[in-house]
Amino acid sequence: MTDLTYKIVAYKEIADFNTDDCIDWAIELLENNVETPNLLILAGLSKPANYFETISYLEASLQELALETLKGDQAVISYCYYYIKRISESIEVKNNLSLVCQFCMNHDYEKKVYDFYLLNWAWGDFDYGEAYTDYWNTATKDNIELIVIATAKDWVIKHFETIKIKK
Question: 43-67 pLDDT, tens per residue?
């Protein structure tokens, strides 16, 4: 499976789920030699995707791959895991941090990712020209990215067992 699988198996719990991710996921799986009839159709859909058509093929693909969708806290952690894992790997750190922060705000300041909300605003203070931030005591303009990456690495380790994708 690919990292996008973490987002995909959480789709039922994410109100603003982007179905274009389903197409990207299907393409990634095909590139990794995972092929099913519905996955082939899903990979061939055009973006922006029609929600109902895409979800229909997604559900059939998940069934063909014997992947279970997640609910509740597991779904929240799995969805965020995708972005936070990318942060921990130093991939588009600021962009992925912003996406987790937005998710946190859109989901009533979700406690499981609240540190990333604080770190995003701390980084924003430094971008605005502030020398100090109240959002994260030990952060400075020089170390904010390293703190974000280290926090992401710790979060990934802490939550990895929680969201193992079940077949």
Answer: 999 999 999 999 999 999 999 999 9
DSSP conformation letters of 43-103: HTPPSSPPHHHHHHHHHHHHHHTTPPPP-HHHHHHHHHHHHHHHHHTTSSHHHHHHHHHHH
Kindly state the tokens that stand for 50.
């029609």
Q: Kindly report the pTM of this predicted structure.
A: 0.90
Q: Are 9 and 70 in contact (CB under 8 A)?
A: yes
Q: Under a CB-based contact definition with an 8 Å cutoff, are residues 128 and 115 in contact?
A: no
- For residues 64 and 28, what is the distance between their CA atoms, to the nearest angstrom? 16
Q: What percent of the chain has pLDDT over 70?
A: 98
Per-chain mean pLDDT for the chain: 94
Closest alpha carbon to 30 in 61, 70, 69: 61
